Each structure stands twice: as structure tokens, then as C-alpha cells.
Amino acid sequence: MRPLRHETLARSERYALADALQQVGPQHPTLCTGWDTADLLEHLYLRERKPYLLLGERLPGAASALRRWRSRSWQEQVDAFRHGTIPFFSCLDSFINTAEYFVHHEDVRRAKTGWQRRELNALQEAQLMRPLGAIARLRLRESAETILVAGRHGGIRIPGEGEGTVRVYGLPSELLLWVFGRREVALVKVETSV
Q1: Residues 151-192 pLDDT 10s
Q2: Which alpha helices (DSSP H) does the chain contain, by range?
Q3: How far apart are alpha carbons 131 and 6 in whole angstroms?
Q4: What CATH number is given to the structural domain containing 138?
Q5: Is 74 helix (H, G, I), strand (E, B) or coil?
Q6: Are 14 and 105 contained in the same domain?
Q7: Residue 191 CA to its chain's centroid (Å)
Q8: Is residue 1 domain-resident?
Q9: pLDDT tens across 76-89, in order?
């Protein structure tokens, strides 16, 4: 059951991702190489509640904190994520989590056979367009110039070191998946010119 709060895309994606995780269980594959849903949920919990543990299990207290997390039932783990954010960070939730939760929700959904693209409304697509530019600049390391074209939502140009141009056409949601490396499942059109 969802708490009654102001519903941002980050928050609705958190709930939808929690629902998807609860439905498929802890050993379901994801699009994150080498991770099943238990690994993905642990990552999400740690980045939000105990980010220092992402640095490694050798830190003081890390092993016992991870043992406590892993000893919880799947339902308890999903609930801990669902009711997430530390109050201090709640004002940053949309900024930090919108793209993260959308992509990981699709990591669970699109790892299933027969998945279909979700229809997002124009406002939701616009909210995914906001982080796309910053994320693309951090993640894309193409030699050619890359231009992300999101129709009426605009475009983003990422300079390259070499010759040529790669144009990628799609909705902001699909471009975000492409930028995050989910290229085999991202519903985009790619054109390359020299």
C-alpha cells in the first residue's frame, strides 16, 4: 500500500519498482550484468541508507551491517526500500532518484520474456529529460559526436573526440535507457554518419 504523499515520478517509480521486485522474488534476472533482483535491491538499499558500504565490505562494521540486511526476509527488504529515503535527503529525492529508479524498474521489467514498453505521459517523459543531459555527459564516451534527439522534448549534443556523428532518436525514457547501457532493449533509432 502506498503512503499518501505528494507523488513525484521518483516516488511513483520507487513504488512500482518495489511492486515489481516483490512480484518476481529475489532470484529473478535483471539487465544489470551479473545481478539478480536480490543484488539490485541490496544496491538500492545501500546507496540510499548506507552508501559507505558501497566502497567495500572491508570497512569497519560493513560485514555485520550486510549480514543484518541479508538476514531479512525478501518482504522486509522490499518494504525497507519501498518506504525509503532518509528524511535529510527527501528534498533531493527527485533530483537523485528519478533516473535511477526508472532505469532499475526497467532492468527488472525488461529482463522478463515478452516485456512491452510502458506508456509514460508527456509530463513523465519531460521529467526523465531533465537528468538525461547530465547523465549523458557523464556516461557517454563515444569517439564521435553524439546527438540525442527526443522529438518535442528537445535534444542534447555531446561532443566527441573523433570524426563523425551518432544521432539517437527516441523518447526521453528510451534515450535514458540507451545512455545507461541498456542498448539492446532501448527502443531507439541510431544513425551514424562519418
Answers
A1: 999 999 999 888 899 999 999 999 999 999 999 999 999 999
A2: 9-24, 37-49, 62-71, 74-82, 93-109, 122-139, 172-179
A3: 20
A4: 3.30.1050
A5: helix
A6: yes
A7: 25
A8: no
A9: 999 999 987 655 55
